[in-house]
């Protein structure tokens, strides 16, 4: 009985990890491939269609600057994201529920790597970009999901009018 319980736990853990697995380099990371991850806010953007560029800084104070962003519905935004800290940070777009679930998973699997269109993960002192088209109005979320960062308040809002 004990071995069945252990096997069941292992299978459940692997299935959970697979549900939140991230695309590998060269794979399709379209919204459909992501299983709806961040789909509520829009979809991956195309560089040629960028209508707004925003600078985002991530720091070891566990904050984004700015924390609140306003864009227009239909905007394709290029986020130029900089990690000015001394530890790894990331910017992940998603619903607050998705981000909470994923943050909890990151605590269990801290070595999990990201490669989705709705995120950028950066080592200290590095910069990167994230291009996203916001095709729905509403208030959407972003966060750093490195273990402990979300819980420390490293998150923000995107208001789409």
From TrEMBL:
Subcellular compartments: Periplasm
InterPro entries registered for this protein in UniProt: BlueCu_1 (IPR000923), Cu-binding_ET (IPR050845), Cupredoxin (IPR008972)
Entry keyword annotation includes GTP-binding: no
Residues in the signal sequence: 1-21
Keywords: Copper, Metal-binding, Periplasm, Signal
Region annotation Disordered: where it falls in the sequence: 25-45
Domain Blue (type 1) copper: 54-161
Protein name: Copper binding s, plastocyanin/azurin family protein
